[in-house]
Design goal:
- The protein has one domain (about 10-30, about 40-125).
- The protein is about 70% helix and about 0% strand.
- It is built from five helices and no strands.
- The chain has helices spanning about 10-30, 40-60, 65-80, 85-95, 100-120.
- Helix 1 (about 10-30) packs parallel to helix 3 and helix 4 runs antiparallel to helix 5.
- The longest helix is centred in the first third of the chain and has 24 residues, at about 10-30.
- The chain is globular and about 50 Å long.
């Protein structure tokens, strides 16, 4: 399947959302420092972000509000979740000789994010409660 080139508004939407998400992630990392050597903040960010990414299509209809979907999905939540910090923290744990902790972090994050996506896919938001629905009734 071939995709068309993104529009300036699509690029701007993702960029704006990415700034918000990255700043939120960074702020949480500063506000909630690491405890007991386990990167709990990044773990929580990735699990919560995975859940929110899974419920996003059910929360708003991306076909009806494509720019909002871009701002929130690949923008905010893409900037909020972080594979690079996850990988770097696992590398640092391994470099410190914490093999068991690194393995627990890698496997635990993967399992928890998959569970969050599965749970998020099961969440159904009634049409009447979705943002932007002006009809006031479920469809």
């Amino acid at each position: 399947m071939r995709r068309s080139a993104p529009t300036a508004s699509a690029l701007g939407s993702v960029a704006l959302g990415g700034v918000v998400g990255a700043l939120a992630r960074w702020s949480l990392g500063v506000a909630v420092p690491e405890v007991d050597g386990f990167p709990w903040t990044t773990f929580a960010i990735n699990v919560v972000g995975s859940f929110l990414l899974a419920i996003l299509p059910g929360l708003l209809d991306p076909g009806r509000r494509p720019l909002l979907a871009l701002v929130l999905g690949p923008g905010v939540l893409g900037g909020f979740t972080t594979l690079s910090a996850y990988a770097e923290q696992a590398r640092a744990l391994l470099a410190d000789g914490s093999v068991l902790l690194a393995g627990s972090y890698l496997g635990g994050t993967l399992a928890a994010c998959l569970a969050a996506v599965h749970l998020g896919n099961r969440v159904r938001v009634p049409r009447a409660q979705r943002p932007g629905n002006t009809h006031g009734r479920a469809e």
